[in-house]
Amino acid sequence: MATKPDYDRLADELTAIGRPILVGFEATGNYHRTLAYRLLSAGFDLRLVSSVALARTREALHNGWDKNDPKDAQVILHMLRIGATQVYVDPLAADINDLQELSKTHETISRAKTQTWHRILTHYLPLYFPEIARFAGNSRSDWFLALIERFPTPGSITALGVEAFTGEAWSLVGRKVSKAQLINDIYETASSSIALPVRKMPRRSLCSA
Predict the structure, then answer these.
(1) Would you kindly state where each structural domain of the chain is located, as residue ranges?
(2) pTM for this structure?
(3) Under 8 Å CB-to-CB from 76, ≥6 apart: which residues?
């Protein structure tokens, strides 16, 4: 792993060339950012090379998909010469680092929420309660998620009886038009379900489905 002296030595060697330096690099997750910031702080011009553009250019120049570091370096030099790069904007230097990190966090949480919702709809419900999917609404239906967390299978509903189920489900469903009818419909749906005959499931099952 590179250290600060390594970065300083590289910056000093580039500066010693005594000519304007244009640095091109391909993004590697976030690993490139510390080096990019050091070189930018030293006054060098930085260019970002798109990974997709690099791959397509390499295939066009070498008539093949195989790659290695020396070949990629030559392709990056070619792209720098023809101007097929992007000006690198460092988030920290541009004072947008916090905004970028918040944006990345929001994207990660949104993707995880969508993936979980799809797993429930396409993996869990078809086995353990397929008919209840018609009540699902959308991924913002918090009442539905609360309901199937408490009652993950038809058997967990019918084991209570309609009145007991209504009492427990009443607060979970929240404010709904024709709330009593909705709860009754869910109970009737559970009573005639074709789901696998599992009465109770561990609480972690919904998350791991």
Answers:
(1) 4-95, 103-208
(2) 0.62
(3) 24, 25, 26, 49, 54
